[in-house]
Amino acid sequence: MDMANYLFEMTMIMPEITLICVGLILLLLDLAVKKKEVIAVVGIAGTLVALYATYKLYIFNQPQNVFAGMFVLDGYSNFFKLIFYINIILTICISLKYMTIEKSSFGEYYALILFATTGMMFMASAADLIILYLGLELMALSTYILAGLIRKQPRSNEAALKYFFLGAFSSAFLLYGISLTYGMTGTTNIKEIAVALQSLNIVDNPIVFLGMIFMIVAFGFKIALAPFHMWAPDVYEGAPTSITAFMSVGPKAAGFAVMGRVLFESFGAMQLQWNSILIPIAVITIAVGSIIALAQTNIKRMLAYSSIAHAGYMLLGIIAGTADGLTSTVNYLMIYMFMNVGAFAVVISLRREGFQGENLEDYMGLAKKHPVTSALMLVFMFSLTGIPPTAGFIGKFYVIMEAVNSGHMYLAIIAVMFSVVSAFFYLRIVMYMYMKDPKEEVTLTSSSSLNFALAVTTAMVIILGVFPSFLLNLVRSSIAG
Amino acid sequence: MSTPQLFFAYFAVMMTGLSLMVVTRKNPVHSVLYMLILFAHIAALYLFLNAEFLAAIQIIIYAGAILVLFLFVIMMLNLRKEETEKRFQKQWPLGIGIGVVLAVFLIMIVGKIAVIAPLGPYSIDAVRSDGHIMTVGKVLYSEFLLPFEIASLILLVAVVGAVVLAKRKIE
After folding, report:
1. Confidence class for position B117, pLDDT limits 50, 70, 90
2. Residues B85, B163: one domain?
3. Between residues 81 and 140 of chain A, which touch chain B (CB distance below 8 Å)?
4. Which residue of B has its CA nearest to A198?
5. Cα A359 to Cα A41, A217, A351, B30, distances in angstroms
6. Residue span of the structural domain in which B64 resides
7. By the CB < 8 Å criterion, does B10 face chain A?
8. Contact A256, A223 (CB under 8 A)
9. Closest partner residue to A145 among B117, B153, B164, by Cβ?
């Protein structure tokens, strides 16, 4: 490999290198600086530098394959990276005060968020199943640690351990799937698998099908699709709330990124086969998420089931199996990030010394004392339900439309039906806030960074709801390019 | 059945049996010792693939280093209580059921496995002429450079995690 070529390849992974370097700097900075605000600001600044690097790399018309065809830089991966950057910034903003209250504000916390995101970025850019697996492990290992960061809380320890064991189990499935596919096609390159499937004429081979199912199982675990969702409620409840917000967006988006890439690029010829798996999964996921959420009394658990249901809706775009379908899924992911992190930001604002603020009853009569926060929660709950003019409606509208366009009318009907069911538990919070009397006085914790995150998420939920075409066009052109 | 097949069958059956022993033993030390034998069998399978270097690595790193670490940890923790408790949750028949269904499914389609893909450049002769370590080293630093670096990052995260979870004092 000559020097110029080597430098060119290094340029292609500049965003990832930036995040790793900033993560390492944060680890060292933690020794010298006592104020966590400084570390958080450096982390956000580093993320912005990485964002700038991605923006600068957005010049190519063709996908760039580097590192012996293992890493690909294209519009699809770049758009996912944009989601990951915003996710880091919002997470750091909602974490600062909260982690201090939990007495777990370590410098490593911010570094691990950056390392986890680097793993997600490698997943989004993976052109080879080996990179995909390693990126997934990097992301997973960092999030296991983050989930268990509040060491004095048994439920946080439980969350980390449970996530770790089940995550290791799902990694085994992924590796099994990869090895079966490699055994049949002789390659781990995502594009070359598709070529081999055609040239060796093994599209109908059950071993290949089984390999694909195992990979779907592993991705489904990261995305929290039913029946691989068992870990999600416990982990989401036990993990620090800011990390719950981070986990419910980042790994989910990364899981969809790799699922979209592997299914569309490797197994594009097997669409009938993967739909025979994904359609039942989507139906079960939407049903389980919407119905079990009804019975929850802890808001973090409720939002965990809600995130399961949303993953089911997002899956509809993949089931459609077209570029437009994928566009609607990615569009939904972006919207989901804003409304979900926003909702968690409100949950975090209820947490203060000696008060968890995670029971639904804590929201009773919140509107009397805190009208602004209640109004924001109202917007997020409307958006999660999918009521216009919020962005949540746009997200659901497009995935359901794609389901109809691809001839899955019954899926669309099921999705709308469970959407109505989900209105019950989302709007119950609104009802508690506005129509009940407060049980006890709730004082809110507020900080400028938390307010910033709330302002951004609310603004985006409303702007994307009123002017949806901007985001949709951006996604469409990214996926096409 | 030819001799290599016979050997493979022996090692495959033994590995399955030993894995079952690892998960069913009540005494953790016994589990680890069964795992030691299991690793030796895995190393033997590598030898079958003409991958002597990997076989040696398997013995040195897994059996030599990691299992010793396992034993240290088990001795540090007092696991006497573990031995008196029930080994499995009450859902274990369900787990076995799913496992059996999966196994039946695998056995049904195992005949469809076929080596039809074009072989890669690293044939046994090619590896022999260069030497195992040299081939592995060359590939790691050229074709698999990026995965190699990401793997190092994973190790870094593991170290950071161990420090942050174990070293920090709880107030």
Report:
1. confident
2. no
3. 103, 106, 108-109, 111-112, 115, 118, 122, 128, 130-131, 134-135, 137-138
4. B117
5. 32, 32, 11, 45
6. 1-90
7. no
8. yes
9. B164
Q: From chain A, pick out residues whose CB is under 8 angstroms from the CB of B167.
A: none
**Secondary structure (DSSP) of A75-143:** HHHHHHHHHHHHHHHHHHHHHHHHHHHTT---HHHHHHHHHHHHHHHHHHTBSBHHHHHHHHHHHHHHH
Residues of A in contact with B119 (CB under 8 A): 186
CB contacts of B153 in chain A (<8 Å) are 20, 115, 118, 138
Alpha-carbon distance values, A247 to A37, A44, A47, A222, A481 (Å): 22, 18, 18, 10, 28
Q: Given B72, B90, B108, which residue is the final one in a domain?
A: B90
Give the closest-approach CA distance of A185 to chain B in angstroms. Answer: 5
Q: B165 contacts in A (CB within 8 Å)?
A: 145, 148-149, 151
Instruction: Answer yes or no: do B74 and B141 share one domain.
Output: no
* Helical axes A241-261 vs A129-147, angle rounded to 10°: 170
| B7 and B81 assigned to the same domain | yes
CA B57/CA B64 separation, integer angstroms: 9
B151 and B77 belong to one structural domain: no
Residue bearing the bigger pLDDT, A276 or B171 = A276
User: Which of A114, A125, A138 is best to mutate for the B interface (most B CBs within 10 A)?
Assistant: A138
Whether residue B83 sits in one domain with residue B6: yes
Tokens 């033993």, residue located: B25
> What CATH code is carried by the domain that includes residue B48?
1.20.120.1200
Boundary of a domain, candidates B32, B67, B90? B90
Q: b/e per residue, A234-270, with b = 16+ CB within 10 A?
A: bbbbbbbbbbbbbbbbbbbbbbbbbbbbbbbbbbeeb
pLDDT at position A281: 95
Contacts of A212 (CB under 8 A, 6+ apart): A177, A181, A263, A267, A270, A273, A274
CB atoms within 10 A of CB A477: 12
Q: Collect the ranges in chain A with pLDDT lower than 50.
A: none
Chain A: closest CA distance from residue B14 (Å) = 20
pLDDT at B4: 84
Partners of A112 on chain B (C-beta within 8 Å) are 157, 160-161, 164
Please tell me the predicted confidence (pLDDT) of residue A445.
84
CB atoms B164 and A135 under 8 Å: no
